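Mods, move this if it's the wrong board.
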Amino acid sequence: DTQLDLLTTLYGNFDIEELAYSMAENGYFDEEPIVAVPAKFPQGFKLSPDIEVQQKQIQNLIDTKSTRFVVVEGNRRTATLKLLTEDSLRKKIKVSDDFPRPASKQVEEDLQIIPAIFYPNRNEISAYLGVRHIAGLLKWEAYAKAVFLASRIEEGVKRKKTVEESIKEVQRQTADRSDVIRKQYLCYKVLKEAENDLSFDISHIKDRFSLITVALNAPSIREFIGVKSYREIDFSKRTVPLKKLENLNRLLTWIYGNNKEKQPILTDSRKITSRLAPVLADEDATEYLIKYDLLEEAYERSGGEKKYLMKKLNDAIKNLRNALTIAYKYKSSDIKALVEESISAGEELKRMLK
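Not the wrong board. Structure tokens:
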């Protein structure tokens, strides 16, 4: 996306207005530098190992505009600064009229140049980001965390490490548990295979990424899409077998819906384990769900036909007993006709069982 697209997204979705009020009044707090990496070093440029020389080299790159820098940490702050100091950007993204402006000329000047820490590349900043946003106080949401972990693992693989070695390296960097890292990576890979192999739109899934982690904890759901548990999975191979891709499409549609084509059948995330998992553990119930997309009815069939029959009979008994509490008020012919029909159905069942 363009820089304007990113700025628009940050303004619309990441509550930068609260930062703007603080900066408009107080200026920029030097105790909170942004963290940046060069987009690309000029040809032939070599960064000195000496920190003091590095400072001068970086300053020269800035002064001569020899490269651009990418903000890795501090994007909300950077977006806020841009909107506080550039009227043209406020107009382009249609910032509301009550969005703050610098309280004084002094504050406005203070916002023009801010402190930054520079790293030569993203690899060297990964440990800091991991500790800050995975184990630290400013935790990322589930999908952002999974993307970060996956990128670090796959970067390790590019450096000729095994997946297991990469996971251990990420664990050391982030202070997170290895089982959590493996679970997140498994869920990320499943979604990426859905996106790449099924052209499944995962954009609406990202905000509810935790639902797929709940689903993949259930053995019956994993079996339905042919995925092994995070302990057994071989990450060097596919996670979802090609022959199970259709089932993966069904699963994601049941949980998340498929844009405007189909709505999700799960109205409550708790039903992933209380309803969907038992249904997919039963062959007849699964077939019913695939055919009709009716979760509750499929759940009633989970456990076999006998269990289904017993539930229906118990429901009938309960309903009749509930009817007893108010039936004395209504001695009309239509009520009597329904009672006779109930008795007739009961007698029919009795004869059938004999």
